[in-house]
């Protein structure tokens, strides 16, 4: 898919048991990287992605961790580094989308969303930075959303988590640029995964006339990985939707 050679690299994809994360894990493996497939609870799904990678001759492990918890992230990074080597590609993809109207949103919904969608990216970035700095090479890609800048279909908590992720992206990018580490975001909208719960009706809002595919998000991530000069940017893919 990418034409890139990532065979000397180790990638960690959070939330890679299904959906967009799984497609990114498969893309990384196809480009030759060793891949850690993180998941929260669906071990069988994660193991199936690992098996698919291994069947094609790649190296991969599945690693359980709730990435909203610092101790779990530390343990995950230690486990991956021991099994595959130091991580120099991090894809912060794990996320949740609790659909709530303004009047129904609870404090717990808000806190959980910020912890899983935003704090996790901070925790994982901090945990992999020492290895990237030692190598003077790193790629961090944060999976944001059109909801960082548009209304979106989930709720204000989700908007805030994804806008925060883009702030994190630019902040880290500015501070790490001299160390060979790029930090970018990819912001898709309306990708057909479990998260969208079969909402194919939403396709009528998309000028292209269909929802996006997870592998199309993986293609955008691949573009970012191959570019040393681009950092602090957000790549948007949304089938031609304009923000209102
Ligand atoms: P999905 O199909 O619901 O998959 C979510 C993945 O995240 C699963 O692998 C899940 O693991 C994992 N996960 C959830 N909470 C976690 C936690 N606390 N720790 C570790 N892993 C966790 O979602 P998706 O549609 O592929 O979305 C992936 C990312 O893209 C999310 O950040 C989402 O916000 C973003 N995004 C999606 C869309 C879209 O239209 N689908 C649009 C814009 C942005 P388990 O399988 O073990 O539960």
Summarize the structure.
This protein has 244 residues and is α/β, with parallel strands linked by helices. It is built from six helices and seven strands. It has a single domain, classed as 3-Layer(aba) Sandwich (Rossmann fold), CATH 3.40.50.
Measured distance between first and last alpha carbons: 33 Å
Q: How many discrete structural domains?
A: 1
List the bound ligands: NADP nicotinamide-adenine-dinucleotide phosphate
Structural class, judged by helices and strands? alpha/beta
**Strand residue percentage:** 15-25%
Average pLDDT works out at: 96
* Widest sheet: strand ordering: 3-2-1-4-5-6-7
- Gross geometry: globular
Say which CATH homologous superfamily is assigned.
NAD(P)-binding Rossmann-like Domain
Taking the sheet with the most strands, its summary is:
7 strands, parallel
What key phrases describe this protein's structure?
single chain, 244 residues, alpha/beta, Rossmann fold, 7-stranded parallel beta sheet, 6 helices, 42% helix, binds NADP nicotinamide-adenine-dinucleotide phosphate
Description:
With 244 residues, this protein is α/β, with parallel strands linked by helices. It has one domain: NAD(P)-binding Rossmann-like Domain (Rossmann fold), CATH 3.40.50. Helix content is 42%, strand content 15%. It has a seven-stranded parallel sheet with strand order 3-2-1-4-5-6-7, sandwiched between helices. Strand 4 (89-92), helix 4 and strand 5 (138-143) form a beta-alpha-beta unit. Helix 1 (19-30) packs parallel to helix 2. The chain starts with 9 loop residues before the first strand and ends in a 7-residue tail after the last strand. NADP nicotinamide-adenine-dinucleotide phosphate binds at residues 14-21, 38-42, 45, 66-68, 93-97, 116, 143, 145, 188-191, 193-196.
